[in-house]
Amino acid sequence: MTDSKRQMHLAVFVVGTGNHSAGWRHEGAFDSNCSWPVLESIAKTAERGKFDLFFVSDGLTSDADDQPSFATRFEPTTLLGAVSMVTKKVGLGATVSTSFGEPFHVARAFASLDHLSGGRAAWNVVTTTNEKAALNFSKQPIPHDDRYEIAEEFVDVVRGLWGCWEEGTIVKNRETGEYIDKTRFHRLDHKGRFFSVRGPANIQRSPQGQPVIIHAGGSPPGQELAARVADVVFSVVAEPDSAKRAYDELKLRVARHGRNPDDVKILAGVMPIVGRTDAEAKAQLDRLQGWISDTTAVPLVSQRLGHDISGYPLDGPIPEFPATERGQTFSKTLLEHARRHNMTLRDIYNLIAAAHGHWVICGTAERIADTLEEWFLERRADGYIVMPPFFPGPFDDFVDLVVPELQKRGLFRKDYSGTTLLEHLGIRR
Question: Is-above-0.90 flag for pTM?
Answer without folding.
Answer: no
